[in-house]
Specification:
Elements: H1 2-7, H2 13-93
Length: 94
């Protein structure tokens, strides 16, 4: 490898320097590639989150509507129970 060549005492100083330069260039390219992949993944995740936002809002709205409907059913059940009590009370008078 370039690193091994750069450390090899049998190589001339110029060969060692060239090997180190090759090694440093490869490391820099790898770091640049890592950053590009990370940045690309971040952009893709942000895009996915943006695409999901309208659907998440729809689900939140639907959850509220279902909750409101459930509250409506509870109120209706209370009214029906009150009617049943009234009918029972009136039935006792007849």
């Amino acid at each position: 490898s370039s690193k091994a060549s750069g450390l090899d005492a049998a190589n001339t100083p110029d060969a060692q320097a060239a090997a180190w330069k090759t090694y440093d260039t490869a490391v820099a390219q790898k770091e640049a590639l890592d950053l590009a992949v990370f940045t690309g993944n971040t952009v893709q995740l942000q895009a996915a989150a943006a695409a999901l936002t309208p659907g998440m809002k729809q689900l939140t709205d639907l959850k509220k509507q279902i909750s409101d409907l459930g509250n409506g059913f509870k109120e209706a059940a209370t009214v029906i129970a009150d009617i049943d009590q009234a009918v029972s009370a009136l039935s006792g008078l007849v």
